[in-house]
Amino acid sequence: MKDEEESLYDTDEGCFDQYSWHAVLEAGFTVRYRALANALTGLEPDVVQCQEVFTWCHLRLLRRELRGLRHLAFRRSFLGPAGGLVTFSQEPLAPGDYVRLRRPTKDAVDALSSRLTLRLRGTLATVHQSTGVTLLNAHTSADSAGDWSPRNRFAGVHRAQLSHLAEIVNAASRPVLMMGDLNTAADSLFYREFCRQLDAADF
Which end of the chain has less Cβ packing within 10 Å, N or C? Predict the structure, then answer.
């Protein structure tokens, strides 16, 4: 385990489960993470893709609790996994790539919260070795206003990031299973535009 943690990518692979949570810097996150890990363990998933695992403390806790998913992939950064993205698996995963999602033009970024979090939004792509499927773990910026109209202040961010994500999926040479937190309503204009850019099915 120590050798894995010191490598650039930790890659230690189906049913696939995806969970996201908001426990960063909140009191009691240890209890929440343990409850989440217990729930996941009961499902016996082959793969779990997580977002918002921003620190090494969060990762160590999940890694300790998710003992049945001993293989994992993430890209190292100073504070923790890059973009907070980690993929856990029962079977080996090939090393993958972390890509930071495209920044929109300066004029399109009206919200201060978006400007501060753009560096934390990206994708992690790994290959599930037994199936050859590319697992794409994605996290885009949130719309704290809950306004999905084309004139909302997050529109430029949504369009830039979802367009970049579609490009990543369409450029893949293998079958892709994408999971993550897209922070976009399924009935929104932005999500419909995103789906039109893809030759894909929404599960």
Answer: C
Classified as helix, coil or strand, 183 is coil
In-domain check, residue 202 = no
Fill in the amino acid letter for 83.
Answer: G
Which candidate, 145, 158, 157, 144, places its Cα nearest to that of 194? 158
Number of structural domains, the chain?
Answer: 1
The pTM of the whole model exceeds 0.70: yes
CA distance 191 to 200: 13
DSSP H or E stretch at residue 73: strand 71-73
Please state, in angstroms and as integers, the Cα–Cα distance from residue 173 to each residue in 98, 134, 201, following that order.
17, 9, 17
Range(s) of the domain holding residue 146: 2-196
Residue 186 has pLDDT above 90, yes or no: no
Computed over every residue of the chain, the mean pLDDT equals: 79
Q: Could you count the other beta carbons within 10 Å of the beta carbon of residue 100?
A: 16
Q: Is 91 exposed, middle or buried (0-12, 13-18, 19+ CB in 10 A)?
A: middle
